[in-house]
Amino acid sequence: MDIKTLEAAMHAFVESKGWYASDSSKPQTPKNLAISLVLEAGEVLEHFQWREQSKQPDELAGELADVMLYLLQLASISEIDLGQAVMDKLAKNAGRTWEE
């Protein structure tokens, strides 16, 4: 599945909940989405607290999906082509070296 398909499904879902409305109780601003992204990433971490593997892979999958959805939405409303941004970052990092 490509990013544009996922992005369209995400926007359709958010729109169906009314969260893009100007009077929404959950305004979909870049700041709010960035906060939500970090909060969901924290929920991913909970699966690994005190262990090396998640005991609940299905729940971990759901948390990873939440992270991706917020990331897709933040990139989209910020007019960032996430696929291109990833490719640009990989190209930039290809020439980097990291200390051992």
The coarse silhouette is: globular
Strand portion, in percent? under 5%
Computed CA radius of gyration, to the nearest angstrom: 16 Å
N-to-C CA distance: 36 Å
Uncertain segments = none
Strand and helix order: HHHH
CATH superfamily descriptor: MazG-like
Give the overall average pLDDT: 97
**What is the class in the CATH system?**
Mainly Alpha
Please give the largest β-sheet. Answer: none
CATH topology, which one? Helix Hairpins
Commentary on this structure:
- It is a single chain.
- Helix 1 (3-16) packs across helix 3 (57-77) and helix 2 runs antiparallel to helix 3.
- With 100 residues, this protein is mainly alpha-helical.
- The chain is built from four helices and no strands.
Give the secondary structure arrangement, pairings included.
Layout: H1 3-16, H2 30-46, H3 57-77, H4 82-94
